[in-house]
Amino acid sequence: CWELGDAVTCLDKEYEYKGRCCNRCQPGQKLVSDCNETHVSVCTSCESGHYQQSWTKEKHCAPHDICEDNAGLIVKTEGNVTHNTVCQCQAGTHCSDTSCQTCVENQPCQLGFGFVTAKAVDRMTSPCEPCAEGTFSNVSSKTEPCHPWTSCEEKGLAVKVKGTNTSDVICESGRRSSLSVLIPITAAVVTCLMGVFIYCLVHTEVQGCSFLSLTPAPVQIEAGKPGENPDTPEPTEQDENVLPVQETLLRGQPVAQEDGKESR
């Protein structure tokens, strides 16, 4: 140590006593007597059930913590002269607060929450955590973790319903997905065609609906009298007034003679 008049500056492992620097006791020990002009500091080991974890000038060691069974605590690590006893909650329980003087029973992780083994081993807080994006839990359990969503792509399928923190993804085949699109379109087209067809049946005179009567109507021919040629035109009233002409031969040449006159 350094002494300058009445001011004394000691090192980290020393302490000031009556104007001089005395040695501190090392971890696991306690001070018995301070140093003087002829003697250095006297130290001794901590008694059983006690500890001292740093360099000290204290004359008493700290007692180990007691893990009370009634509080739900058990020993995690036994203490020694340099470290305190470490307690933890019994299996299935966790610390009630940050001081962990008492324990409370683990409640089942609710839907959307999963059991975390590391937190359960630590037993400091509840072992349940909310399911992260891409995972889910659809049961209330003290042991079930969050499970990852099913990968539809790895199975060659398409996503039908996206997953949530409480439900898995629902997959469907790609072909079925295509049909789910084609079927409504086909139904719409068929409905339109049926509508046009019904409209044309009701309004056959509307232009554009002539395709409904592509076959020409048969021509009806009235039945004539027996022996009549349908292609022969019927005589008109004017033709009936014309007298028939008779032809005679005069010197070998035909001569027209009106009916009723004698030939010469």
TrEMBL record:
It holds the Pfam family TNFR_c6. TNFR-Cys repeats lie at residues 9-43, 130-171. Receptor for TNFSF5/CD40LG. Transduces TRAF6- and MAP3K8-mediated signals that activate ERK in macrophages and B cells, leading to induction of immunoglobulin secretion. It is found in: Membrane. SMART domains: TNFR. GO terms for cellular component: CD40 receptor complex; external side of plasma membrane. GO terms for molecular function: signaling receptor activity. The chain crosses the membrane at residues 181-202. SUPFAM superfamilies: TNF receptor-like. Residues 9-43, 130-171 form the TNFR-Cys domain. PROSITE patterns: TNFR_NGFR_2 (PS50050). This is Tumor necrosis factor receptor superfamily member 5. Its main location: membrane. It is a single-pass type I membrane protein. Residues 222-243 are annotated as: Disordered. Keywords: Disulfide bond, Glycoprotein, Immunity, Membrane, Receptor, Repeat, Signal, Transmembrane, Transmembrane helix. GO terms for biological process: B cell activation; CD40 signaling pathway; defense response; immune response-regulating cell surface receptor signaling pathway; intracellular calcium ion homeostasis; positive regulation of developmental process; positive regulation of macromolecule biosynthetic process; positive regulation of multicellular organismal process. It comes from Acanthisitta chloris (rifleman). Disulfide bonds join 22-35, 25-43, 131-146. It comes from the Eukaryota. InterPro entries: TNFR/NGFR_Cys_rich_reg, TNFR_5, TNFRSF5.
